[in-house]
Amino acid sequence: MILSSTPRESGLRMPAEWAPHARCWMAWPHRAEVFGDAMPETRKAYAAVARAIARFEPVTMIALPELLAEAAHHCGPGVELLPLAIDDAWTRDTGPTFLVGEDGSRAATAWRFNGWGGSFDRYAEDARLPARLTAHLDLPLYRSSLHLEGGALHVDGEGTILTTESCVLNPNRNPGMTRAEIERELCAALGASKVIWLPGELHPGDVTDGHVDGLACFARPGLVLMETRTDPHSPRTEILRENLHALRGATDAQGHALEIVEIEDAWEAEVRGDAWCASYVNFYMANGGIVMPCYGIPADDRARASIQRVFPDRQVVQVDVRGIAVGGGGIHCITQQQPA
After folding, report:
1. Under DSSP, is residue 314 helix (H, G, I), strand (E, B) or coil?
2. Which of 100, 94, 92 is nearest to 19 (CA)?
């Protein structure tokens, strides 16, 4: 059922990712133009992420019907499967954004999806995924006017949205809309009241145009984890410094100054192509756990220790994401939580 009012008018909001989940949604990779020769490694990594999350909460893997058996073989019996037509395997971006109400009601927002700003010609099945998935779950669906992907957003569940100018204000997504108009629509669609803008980042290999989930995330109300880099020869070092500068001094929807914890990215990892994702903050908050990336480098242990300090009551599990990173994303990019 598609609704004409807005989620905020209906008393709905996107909850924070640390709120309890009913399930995690993923999609089985098959797009050769994204992963190329790395596809066997990619599928092993996707399955490893699914099995890790399944230790904490139910996981459903969406897969093309003809790839269902292969996905079942890799993922094992602890991961449920759902056959659906899909174009790509980034459910954070292509799936619905789930909403909750104070009265226990549940719904979802569907963003207009145009293949990451027209980076791909084939995206019609992914554009239909929110409607198909919410129909499968028998949930009401709100349709936003914004061309957007879920990886462009982080929320604190208390009215604050964290996003990037490089993506959401990009003419390849929402031409002709002002920042104020986009802010109003974001808040209406997510049941929020304030948007914090980071500059983001633009480089040729990143089809997301600088999604926030590769840069920063809320860890709890008032606390943001922020990616940094110390490599003096990398242009990303200055880009991340600019994003950190923009976040300092920002306040949330409650008027509180934000505490920032810096997490150095995996810049020492082997880089395979322009799309490579080196983010440690691109992780998944499961029920009682954190499933985070590792890259086979010494910095993995430092990043894990930093994350564990921020989440002392959660079990931190690392999964080698090099097969995913080569396609331009991480664990957060390939997952979508459904609130309990």
Report:
1. coil
2. 100
For residue 333, indicate whether it is catalytic. Answer: yes
Amino acid identity of residue 112, one-letter, is R
* Catalytic member of 167, 187, 277, 333: 333
Domains and CATH numbers, the chain: 2-339 (3.75.10.10)
Q: Are 317 and 291 in contact (CB under 8 A)?
A: yes
Mark residue 72 as left, alpha or beta (left: phi above 0; alpha: psi -120 to 50; beta: remaining).
Answer: alpha
Query: Within a 10 A sphere around the Cβ of 33, how many other Cβ atoms?
Result: 9
> Whole-prediction pTM value?
0.97
What per-residue string of b and e applies to 50-86 under the rule 16 or more CB within 10 Å gives b?
bbbbbebbbbbbbbbeebbeebbebbeeebebeebeb
> Half-sphere exposure of 327 toward its Cβ, with a 13 Å CA cutoff?
28
Name the nearest CA neighbour of 165 among 156, 177, 155. 177
In this structure, are residues 241 and 280 in contact, taking their beta carbons and an 8 Å threshold? Answer: no
Quote the distance between the C-alpha of residue 60 and its chain's center. 16
Sequential pLDDT tens for the chain (340 residues): 656 689 999 999 999 999 999 999 999 999 999 999 999 999 999 999 999 999 999 999 999 999 999 999 999 999 999 999 999 999 999 999 999 999 999 999 999 999 999 999 999 999 999 999 999 999 999 999 999 999 999 999 999 999 999 999 999 999 999 999 999 999 999 999 999 999 999 887 899 999 999 999 999 999 999 999 999 889 899 999 999 999 998 999 999 999 999 999 999 998 888 889 999 999 999 999 999 999 999 999 999 999 999 999 999 999 999 999 999 999 999 999 999 9
Dihedral angle over CA of 338, 173, 159, 100, nearest 10: -30
